[in-house]
Every structure is written in C-alpha cells, then in structure tokens.
Amino acid sequence: MRVAGGSGRSAGRCRICGRPGAIRIPYANAWFCEEHFPLWLERRIRRVAEKYRMFEGSRRVAVAVSGGKDSVALLHALKAIGDDAGFEVVGVHVDLGIGEFSSASAEAARRNAEMLGIEGVIVDLRRKYGFTIPDAVRSIRRPACSTCGLVKRYALEEAAEDVGADTLATGHNLDDMAQFVAMGYQSGDVEGLARLRPVIPAGRYAVRSVKPLFLVYERETAEYVRMRGLPMVSTRCPLKDATSGGVVREKMLEVEEAMPGFMMRLVQEFADKVQPALADRYLREGEVGRCRICGRPTSRDREICSFCAVRMRAAGTATG
Ligand code: SF4
Ligand code: ZN
Ligand code: ZN
C-alpha cells in the first residue's frame, strides 16, 4: 500500500477503525485509512467553518471550481457539509481561455458538478468580457498570475451574485495562506495583511467571501481527491510564472517537516491575533468608491477598478 507522508516509518493503524493506515497526519499525531481520511478531513473543515462562522445564515453557496485539486476537494466537502447544515452548493468555473489547459479545467469542473448532481455554471471570459487571460498577459506588463488572479476574483464575485448566492467559497489552502503571510511580512504590506482573512463579510461586495480550506494543507486536499478518485485537471497552466513566493513556500515545507504543525500555527495565530490587530489600524472598508465604468466597488482613490483597467487594455489585443 502507498503510504503518504510516512517516509521511513512503518504504517500505523487508522485512528477510527484500527485497520492499517494509508496516510499519516503528523500535526494530529494520527494515521487514517483511505476510507476514513476523507471523512475526518470533512469533519475538520466543518469545525473550522463553524468556528469562523463561515456559513452562518447561508442558503446558497457558490464554490469557485478551477478544476484543480483544492477546488475539487472543496466542492465535494461543502456539498456534504451543506446537506447537513442546510445550504445549497453551486459550482462556478471561470473559463480563462488558456487553450487546452482551460478546456481540460472546464471539463473537470463540469464532471464534478455532474457527479454531485448540483448546478454548475461556466463563465466564459471571452464571451462575457471580450478577452482571455492570454490577451491580458500580452497587453500588460505584470506577472501572468497576478493579472489572472484579479480577473478571476472579479468574474467569480459577479458570477456568485448572478446565481443568487449569498456566499462565495474559494479553495485557498493552508500552504497558500502561509505563503501570503510570509510574503506580506517580508514586504511590509500591512494593508494586504489586514485584508487577508478567512471570512470577508458582505458589505463592500454583495456576497460574503470565505476560505474553508485555510487550515487544510495542500497535501491533504491532494490525498482527499486521490482517495475519492475524483476527476481533476492534472495539466499545468502554461502561463504559470516562477515567483519568489514559490521558493518561500518550498522552504516553509522544509520547516514543517522538521516542526510538524508549524504552518498551521503560523496561519492560525495570524488569523486569530495578528490580522484583527492590523484590521483595526489599516482596514478602511467604509471608504469605498465606485468604478466609473462598471459601477462595482473600487478603492477610494481610483476612478476605474483594476479589472476594468485590465479589460480596456486586453480587449484591444483580443484575438477572435
Ligand atoms: Fe492563472 Fe497563473 Fe493559475 Fe495559470 S497558473 S490559471 S495564469 S493564476
Ligand atoms: Zn479507518
Ligand atoms: Zn470596473
């Protein structure tokens, strides 16, 4: 049997059923079999969601499904949680127009929604907004992933409102969060850190935004998807840029290996103590302006939101 994360050790017994374990979770000092790990992880996600009141009053939750492992795990876990907690789940996928990578991603999103018997919506950037991510990258001198991130965020928020959701859930995991925290400290970006939280209440935007996987390691979502045999996109995005964040992430995983639970404590303490203190001082959510073009929220000092700025440049270079 393949033993995930059990390097150099013989497998222990599943904490739940006592059969041979398939995965070792060092921070919980436990082993789980392939049947019980996914259930245990869903329970953990549910406890985190409850602690941070992610779905309090939610009736319809839009889940951002890129087709990658984190979003696929999130969709399945939230469907199970929603069935108990009384909210409905809708999968929302943004087709970025990145050739075969995007076709495979859309197909994975569609198959997962079908498997769960839920509504799945695909927003085609080219059709809805007149440009693709490759168009945007050609027209703007900034890293592809940063442009892509802001475009996706905008398209997802609008799509969540369009499908009548009250909550938008995204698949940011613990490794992503640890990287954001470390990079934010390194650059002294106190405003960015003040905005980095597991729950962003509705207000500035019409829907609440939540990150239910923010305390789940990337390795755990990968194992959840593998053990459940879920469809996901395995091709790499051809536009992915090498960033210094990637190096930091790798090094943090080395620290994690030596000090199990390090990344979890870093992110949890940040969310519980540091971010609220920074928010008091640096978050100015009341001061919202409106974009002159699309009417959506923007920073006070900007007439045009970042999305519309990208769209204007990209639409000029759009192909077909
Ligand atoms: Fe977008 Fe970067 Fe992800 Fe590609 S790797 S889909 S460019 S964020
Ligand atoms: Zn078991
Ligand atoms: Zn705008």
Automatic annotation (TrEMBL):
A single MF term (Gene Ontology): metal ion binding
GO cellular component: cytosolic tRNA wobble base thiouridylase complex
Keyword annotations: ATP-binding, Metal-binding, Nucleotide-binding, Transferase, Zinc
Residues annotated as binding Zn(2+) 2: C291, C294, C305, C308
Gene3D superfamilies: HUPs
Protein name: tRNA(U54)-2-thioribothymidine synthetase
Superkingdom: Archaea
Amino acids binding ATP: A64, V65, S66, D70, V94, G171, D176
Domain tRNA(Ile)-lysidine/2-thiocytidine synthase N-terminal: 61-231
Signal peptide (residue range): none
Binding locations of Zn(2+) 1: C14, C17, C33, H36
Listed InterPro entries: Rossmann-like_a/b/a_fold, TilS/TtcA_N, tRNA_thiolation_TtcA_Ctu1, TtuA-like_LIM_N
Annotated ranges, domain 2-thiouridine synthetase TtuA-like N-terminal LIM: 13-37
Biological process according to GO: tRNA wobble position uridine thiolation
SUPFAM superfamilies (UniProt xref): Adenine nucleotide alpha hydrolases-like (SSF52402)
Coiled coil: none
